[in-house]
Amino acid sequence: MEIFSMNATATNAPTATNTEDYKKKYDETTEAANAGMHKGAAKDLAAKVIDTFYEVLTPKAELELQAQIKHAASINDFDALESLMSKRKEIKTNQAKDGNIIKEIRKHDFPLVLKAFRSEFDAVIYEIAYNVLTGTHKAIEEAAKPARAPRGSKTTESKPESSDRITTVYEISKDGKSFEFPIRAGRSKLSLDTEAFAFLGFKIELDEDKKEFLEPGTVKQKDGTETPATRKAIAQAIIDKLEGFEGFTIKNITQQ
Asked: How far apart are alpha carbons 30 and 8 in whole angstroms?
């Protein structure tokens, strides 16, 4: 499969004047006001694409040096910091020299530059294509899974909701605020605990059949997989201090 067509002329090269500012569009999606605009899996995939480019653009030596500086600062090793900052100065000097080389490269048409670095661009593009392929496939598979398997009869349309029975009660806290977060048995409505879910960053929405569901609908595990956002899964995520639940504390206050 061909990723680039090298028969393009200079007139086909992308320019800043005839394209939309997609960086601005992307940055807007990361703002707090738009946090619920896209699914978590989609945002993770987009971030992974961007990280791939930044890793290519940032020399490994610089990345390693940044990590060493951070470590030395964390343990107050000032002698090491002095030596590392000297190395950083050398890198900055070399970057200034690189700037002159880049100016020369930019004198050539973009398709010609692509052709010169074809193998390098292919490596990056195919890495991104693979990540998009596998990430999208996983997201579609997760979306296709039923939220809850039917019990007893083959249809749940006429099945009455089971009684609301609380098995465990937790107290979740953060920044001086606390809410009770009960683990309910049966098919209890999510709206029974609207405030607690909102406190944890979840929204309760309705599907076409007027059934309640949480948004986001999954909890991201430490290994990168995602599991349905059930009450039990959310409580366990707080206990395990998973991504998105940093700063929360949880305590079992079930009355015996």
From this structure: 34
